[in-house]
Structures are given as structure tokens and as C-alpha cells.
Specification:
elongated, 6 helices, mainly alpha, 78% helix
Length: 138
């Protein structure tokens, strides 16, 4: 066990918990329809309602499911790419609504995500993906 393994595990868990909890609150506490009404409906002035509503559901469930998978370390590459899409959608949406907006939430998540993308996945030894790969090796 070394610091790289521990650091990757910590960052993966941290980012997973952040996204999981955000998705959990959107889906189970507020409800996606309420999230749509409160945060997304104003975008329908210049974007099709179907697209905006789909975006509300996509980001909410992607955060919830992706956060869980990231915590356990399963399907990491797919989760990373989905989170890239989520962060781009969120950045685009906030940018349209308010061109000069506070980047604190997106920037922190994007930094952690970029770190995970840049690190070799075989160093993340406690991810289920990595454990399965090791078991399958002859």
C-alpha cells in the first residue's frame, strides 16, 4: 500500500460521495420534477422544454447512479465520461442563465475528476474494476 493508492481511493470516494449525495437529494428529497421547476424551467424561454426536462432528469440520475458506481469503483471510465457531460451541461446552463457565475461547485468537481482521469487506473487497487481485472488475469 502506498500514498498513490490511498490518494486515489480517497479522491474517488470523495467525488463519488459528492455526486451521490447531490443526486440523492435531487431524486429522493426534492424530487426531480421539483428540481426542474426550481432550477431548470427558466431555461425553457430559449431552449425546448423537452431538452431542458431531459437534462434535469439526466443530471439528477447520473449524479445518483454514477456517484454510487464511483464509490465502489465499478465502470469507472464510463462514470468519468458521464460526469464530464454532467459538468459541461451544468456549466453551459449556468453560463446561459448568468454569464458571470460562481464556479466554486463545478471547478472543485472538475479538478477531482481530471485528477482521476489523469492517474493510471491500475494504481486504484481498491476499485472493483481493478479487483475483477486482477482475478481474471492468469
Amino acid at each position: 500500500m502506498n500514498n498513490i493508492t490511498i490518494g486515489l481511493f480517497f479522491i474517488r470516494l470523495l467525488l463519488g460521495v459528492i455526486f451521490l449525495m447531490q443526486g440523492f437529494v435531487k431524486v429522493f428529497t426534492f424530487g426531480v420534477d421539483n428540481v426542474y421547476q426550481k432550477f431548470f424551467v427558466s431555461y425553457t424561454e430559449f431552449l425546448p422544454e423537452f431538452l431542458v426536462q431531459t437534462t434535469a432528469y439526466f443530471t439528477s440520475y447520473a449524479e445518483l447512479i454514477g456517484g454510487f458506481f464511483l464509490i465502489i469503483g465499478l465502470f469507472r471510465n464510463y462514470v468519468y465520461y458521464v460526469f464530464i457531460a454532467v459538468l459541461l451541461v451544468v456549466s453551459f446552463g449556468h453560463g446561459i442563465a448568468q454569464p458571470i457565475w460562481d464556479l466554486q461547485h463545478v471547478f472543485f468537481r472538475a479538478t477531482l475528476l481530471a485528477f482521476l482521469l489523469f492517474m493510471p487506473q491500475e494504481k486504484d487497487k481498491w476499485a472493483i474494476d481493478q479487483i475483477i481485472k486482477k482475478i481474471k488475469q492468469p
